Amino acid sequence: MFTDGVSLPGLSEKVMYQTCFDNLQYPDKKTANAFQFPANRLCGYKSQDVKAKRDFGMTVDHLNTLLQKQKYPCGLCYCQLTTDTASADRINNKLGHIDGNILISCVKCNTARKDMSSKGFRYKKLLEFNSDRLVYSIDKEEKNIYTNMKANIAGDPSIIFNRYAKRNETKIRGGKLCKKVIGYDANALYLWALGNDMPCGRLTTIETYPEIVEDIKNDKIFGFLECDIHTPEHLNQYFGEMTPIFKNTLFDCTDESIIGKHMYDYNQAREKSRSKPARKLIGSYLERRSLSTRRCSSGTYRMGDADESKAMMAEMMKLVGNSSFGRSGMDMSKHKEIKYESSDKAIKAKIEHFTFHGLEELNDACELTMMKRKLKNKNPIHLSIAIYQLAKLRMLQFYYDCIDIYFDRSDSQYQEMDTDSAYIAFSCDNPFQDCINLNYVSTSSSTSDAMVSLSSKNYICYLPDDLYKVKVSAKGVQQGRGRNNDVLSPKGFETVVRDRITLQGTNKGFRLSKETKSIITYSQTKTALSRQVLSRLYYDPKTGYINAQALHEKARELDPKITLKNVKDCYATQSVIQRFQEQKQRFDGFKIASHNPNSWQIDLAFWGKQPILTGININSRIGYANLLSNKTAATVLVALKAFIRCNKVDIITSDNGSEFMNSKARQLFKANKIEHYNNEPGDHGTMGKIERFNRTLKQRLTKMSPKRITHKLISDVITNYNTTTHRSIGMTHNEAKGKVIEAELNHNQVEADKIDNELEVGTNVLNRLKKKTF
To answer: Among residues 324, 438, 467, 669, which one has the fewest Cβ atoms lying within 10 Å of its Cβ?
Structure first.
């Protein structure tokens, strides 16, 4: 079996489908009633061969002999034949109807086979006969159901119930002292679920009817049910610890009543990233079964528990089995194509293509990542959903049918739950000795006196005795051979809970260098500020969509140890940056400057058809934007009044649009003692700063791709813009408020001196006129 797979995903796909094809049922080859092949049909076959320029040499005697040998059923689907349904089908479609190239089949199979080989068509009919036992993809006609299933698929939960439990120190639910912490693992849980009845056959839908819920309870219906489900209020306390409903949903990270005091304080301490809603797993669908695909490799995996010499084979079979399950739920919409180009022309063409996703520079070429133009979602996603649900059901059964029945809740408390494991604190030393016998797939994996749970996949169990047994789970941090022992220790985990600090670990290894084409070693420090957090900073309108240097400064407010290289590495992988990044235009000569710190440029920008009144301070670069309902003079006038109220304005420069040049606008400027200057639209020499600000605003909105822009979104973008350090002035725009940028004035003076030195009185010069329509 292992020789069939080029890679683990390829092997797992073979396993996923091959398990369905074992022991297929064949149709009964019953002998039908004898009859003679109709001789009058030979003329029709002869005319077909003449028209196709093929040889014809078929006789009625040969056809009758074939019927007797086949015992009168169809040679492809094995249905019983009659004089009306029997037909002469050619084995080799390139040859004509001649003796030795004929197969007696039914008219339906003869028509449907076309140019397919007889062996392949016979296998196709066999699969159709076993259609209720095989896993089928969801047809294109039912793509709405596929989309609904994909949107509501809920992975297995990894939950922290209680962060810290220690023998004779902490209390269970504030009552009895903790005496023991025991962890239980459900070995090969996915393989066990895969061995149960699975949703097979073609997808069919039925309308709801009044008794459908009762039929589901009585196992009269098998499949998926889309329904509204909730926990009744009078059962909230009973299901308070272990929820029976799992669902992916967004919740507010700023609501203390939802996330708890600890995480609320944690988010408050990290103000920059606390307000973004998080998508977490908190609920599930109604699950069950259909027809079994076949027993999986769980038996081989269980042999490794009994015989240590077979542990390697057991782990290998577990990996293959889990991979076959994972393959069914793989999101093929994220698949991409990798291409290599060396010519600048080809690279530019790929970057400008709408499927471009990212690139990485090599020595003499570029590795380009492209989105696929067409995707065929053929994976049976309903298979993975069923396995997920059965796995969650098994863990719920362990809680409600075992722990909750044999133990009072004052004697036990869940500490941490993962996909196939549960860690429980008990108020007695030998809780399972006399009251229960676990004889199914669950086995005790660890017994300890203390446990610290930091987050999903990050916990430690330990026995503070002479052996000092420790079981650690730290996803993303290397363990073994003494690596990170100073961090992955009971003291380290307890310090995190007690002092609310973060830990760092160092990963070391080797990899292939694309630059030197050799194997090199590397050392990587896993910091508290992960790439996921950096991405969250970047995609937040209040903090992101800025350059790498500015993002680094804001990231350092969360973690001073974050380096610019970490930010640039994360920055370079964001597809929106690579897709929408534009080459900066350089303009020589005089800069737009002013001796007055309250000098502004204003303009009307457009997002689609929606106008936005924008403004920028010439010195401090403070930005302003106000979303308008339309561009009429009355609407713009109201927006101008709001702009003047919010900012100190002495000078305004705008284009010569009627919304700024009408009599009411002039009266407004005059009443507020504002000097107003106007220029031609597109004159970069005088209106360059407001044009650059409009471009920045549009770039950030484009990267966000909002369904619609709102006043709050514009306000968040402007607040982020004004609190970001500007590279040319070396401070944020708000910090530069009220200041005059002397460096720009000095630059203009130097440029003016150059011109004075190059020209003398009486020198002929060329006066370039501005382009105008005529």
So the answer is: 467
